[in-house]
Amino acid sequence: MRLIDGNAIAQQVLAEVKARAANLAPIVPHVAFVRVGEDPASVSYVAKKQKTAAEVGMKASLTVFPSDVSKAELFAHLDALNADASVHGILIQAPLPKHLPETEVFNRVSPAKDVDGFSTQSIGRLVQELPGAFAACTPAGVIELLRRSGVETAGKHAVVVGRSLIVGKPAAALLLAKGCDCTVTIAHSKTRDLAAVVRQADIVVAAIGRPRFITADMVKSGAVVIDVGINRVPDATKKAGYRIVGDVDFDAVSPKCEAITPVPGGVGPMTVAMLMMNTLTACERARG
C-alpha cells in the first residue's frame, strides 16, 4: 500500500504558484473572498485560504456581509468585483443563508473570475472540455493527486461515489476528459448493490459525505482510493471532543489498496492549493 501524501503534493503545487506569481511582478494576483454570516467553518476556511494566499505572494481581500444581507446588495458587490481589473478571482464561501439562491449567486460571478468553478457556465465549459474553464477546486485537486502520484488513468474504470455539483459531477467529468481517459461510473445513495458497483473500480473517488462508508468488502485488491470525505465523529480522547475521518474506512481498506489518500492530509490540502492555481491562471489570462 502506498500513501498519497496530499500535504506534500499541495506544497509542490504552491511552490509552482509562488514562482509563477513572482514572475508577474509588479502585477499581484488578487483573489476576493465574500462571506455571508459567521458560520464557524466558513470563518476558518476563509482564514486558511487568506493565509495560504499570503504565503504564495498573492493578495487576498475579504468582504463579510451580515447573514440577512439582501440579494440586491450582494449582487451589487459582486458586480463591482467583476468590474475591478485588479481582482482576478472571486470566491463566495458556501454555504449561504437560505434566502440567497446559491446557483444564482455563483452565476453572478464573471466566468473569467470564477476560480471556484461553481457557475453554470464554468461547469458547462468543463463538460464540453472548452479552454478557459475553471474546474472546482476539490475535484481538480483529486486529478492533480492522481497525476502527480503517477497513477495510470487511461482506460481504467473509475467509480465516483457521490453526485454533488461541488465534487461528484465535476470529478466524473474530469476523469472522463481527454488526458485522464477513464471509463466512469457515478454511484450514489440510490445505486442498487452499491458495493458490487464500487468493487469494479480501478480508481474509487469517495465523496458521499458519510463517515467510513466505503468498507473493505467494497474495494477490490489493487485499487487506488481517493477519499474526499471530511466527517466529524465523537472522540472523547480529543480536546475538541471529535476527530476527523473520511468517507473510507481507512484502517480496513488501506491494506487492499495499491494507493490511498489519508484523512486528514489527503485531498483537503489540495483544495486550497488548486484555488491558488486557479487564481494565478486567471491573473495570467487577464494579463494576456
How many domain regions? 2
**H/E series:** EHEHEHEHHHEHEHEEEEHEH
CATH topology of the largest domain: Rossmann fold
Could you name the CATH class of the largest domain? Alpha Beta
What does the average pLDDT come to? 96
Q: Number of helical runs?
A: 10
Radius of gyration: 19 Å
Give the CATH H-level superfamily of the largest domain: NAD(P)-binding Rossmann-like Domain
Query: Considering DSSP H and I runs of 4 or more, what fraction of the residues is helical?
Result: 25-40%
What is the spatial order of strands in the main beta sheet? Answer: 1-11-8-7-5-6
Q: What's the β-strand tally?
A: 11
Structural class: alpha/beta
CATH arch. level architecture of the largest domain: 3-Layer(aba) Sandwich
Form type = globular
**Main β sheet profile:** 6 strands, parallel
Task: State the gist of this model.
The protein has two domains: 20-133, Rossmann fold (3-Layer(aba) Sandwich), CATH 3.40.50; 137-269, Rossmann fold (3-Layer(aba) Sandwich). The chain is 39% helix and 17% strand.
Report on this structure:
The chain is of the alpha/beta class. The chain has two domains: 20-133, Rossmann fold (3-Layer(aba) Sandwich); 137-269, Rossmann fold (3-Layer(aba) Sandwich). It has ten helices and eleven strands. The protein has helices at residues 6-22, 40-55, 71-83, 102-107, 120-127, 137-148, 168-176, 194-198, 250-253, 267-287; strands spanning 2-3, 30-36, 59-65, 89-92, 157-161, 183-187, 203-206, 224-227, 231-234, 242-245, 259-260. It has a six-stranded parallel β-sheet with strand order 1-11-8-7-5-6. The chain has a three-stranded parallel β-sheet with strand order 3-2-4, sandwiched between helices. Strands 9-10 form a two-stranded antiparallel sheet. β5, α7 (168-176) and β6 form a beta-alpha-beta unit. α1 packs parallel to α10, α2 (40-55) crosses α10 (267-287) and α6 (137-148) crosses α10 (267-287). The longest helix has 21 residues, at 267-287. The radius of gyration is 19 Å and the shape is globular.
